[in-house]
Amino acid sequence: MLDAWYMDDDTTMDQREEHRLKPNKPATLEDLQTLGVLHWTFDADSYKDSPEFAAMRAERGYDYEDTCTVSRETMPNYEEKIKSFYEEHIHSDEEIRYCLDGSGYFDVRDGQDRWIRIKVEKNDLIVLPEGIYHRFTLDNKNYIKALRLFKGVPIWTPYNRPQENHPSRTKYSQSFLQQLQQMAA
């Protein structure tokens, strides 16, 4: 089961800590879905033979993949890289990550610009929609191995906030944020 919660604003704590509000305020899967965030669970030890995984990939058009391991041992300039992943940004494509081992956090902005932290562990596949403000960090275990999926040629370009006039942000705002505002009215 996916664990997600609204974050505190404590900037003195390491980004790899949980940063839960006190008292904790969970974010539900429905909360995430209203933001366009999708989640699946597949057995990371046998996903290559999984008809369900293959069907999801085909249905969503994910035809390219690679594997990325983030740890002190595998990544040069580890601390600088982790800090750069934690810069708030958008992409002009979906961000699809399937956790094969280890764990980490994806943070996304909700409709009121509050951070929601999503814990991703082995077997979790998460899709962040094009144009959503987000960031990534490892947890205090400092290790994740993830399968990255793409539609076509991979594009990894982050566009750091502010990006309100970027076409992908405009598309996201029209698709999700305006719907949230209408629901709240």
TrEMBL record:
Catalytic activity: 1,2-dihydroxy-5-(methylsulfanyl)pent-1-en-3-one + O2 = 3-(methylsulfanyl)propanoate + CO + formate + 2 H(+); 1,2-dihydroxy-5-(methylsulfanyl)pent-1-en-3-one + O2 = 4-methylsulfanyl-2-oxobutanoate + formate + 2 H(+)
First-listed, main subcellular location of the protein, grouped into a coarse class: membrane
UniProt pathway annotation: Amino-acid biosynthesis; L-methionine biosynthesis via salvage pathway; L-methionine from S-methyl-5-thio-alpha-D-ribose 1-phosphate: step 5/6
GO BP annotations listed: L-methionine salvage from methylthioadenosine
Signal peptide (from-to): none
Listed cofactors: Fe(2+); Ni(2+)
Sequence positions that bind Fe(2+): H89, H91, E95, H134
EC class: oxidoreductase
Enzyme Commission designation: 1.13.11.54, 1.13.11.53
An example Gene Ontology CC term for this record: nucleus
Binding site for Ni(2+): H89, H91, E95, H134
Subcellular location: Cell membrane; Cytoplasm; Nucleus
Gene Ontology terms, MF aspect: acireductone dioxygenase (Ni2+-requiring) activity; acireductone dioxygenase [iron(II)-requiring] activity; iron ion binding; nickel cation binding
InterPro entries reported for this sequence: ARD, ARD_euk, RmlC-like_jellyroll, RmlC_Cupin_sf
Alphabetically ordered keywords of this record: Amino-acid biosynthesis, Cytoplasm, Dioxygenase, Iron, Metal-binding, Methionine biosynthesis, Nickel, Nucleus, Oxidoreductase
Pfam family, one: ARD
SUPFAM superfamilies membership: RmlC-like cupins
Membrane topology classification: Peripheral membrane protein
Cofactor note: Binds either 1 Fe or Ni cation per monomer. Iron-binding promotes an acireductone dioxygenase reaction producing 2-keto-4-methylthiobutyrate, while nickel-binding promotes an acireductone dioxygenase reaction producing 3-(methylsulfanyl)propanoate.
Xref: CDD domains: cupin_ARD (cd02232)
Origin superkingdom: Eukaryota
Function: Catalyzes 2 different reactions between oxygen and the acireductone 1,2-dihydroxy-3-keto-5-methylthiopentene (DHK-MTPene) depending upon the metal bound in the active site. Fe-containing acireductone dioxygenase (Fe-ARD) produces formate and 2-keto-4-methylthiobutyrate (KMTB), the alpha-ketoacid precursor of methionine in the methionine recycle pathway. Ni-containing acireductone dioxygenase (Ni-ARD) produces methylthiopropionate, carbon monoxide and formate, and does not lie on the methionine recycle pathway.
Homology family: Belongs to the acireductone dioxygenase (ARD) family.
Alphabetized PANTHER family for the sequence: ACIREDUCTONE DIOXYGENASE
Name used for this protein in its record: Acireductone dioxygenase
Origin species: Nannochloropsis salina CCMP1776
Taxonomic lineage from the root: Eukaryota, Sar, Stramenopiles, Ochrophyta, Eustigmatophyceae
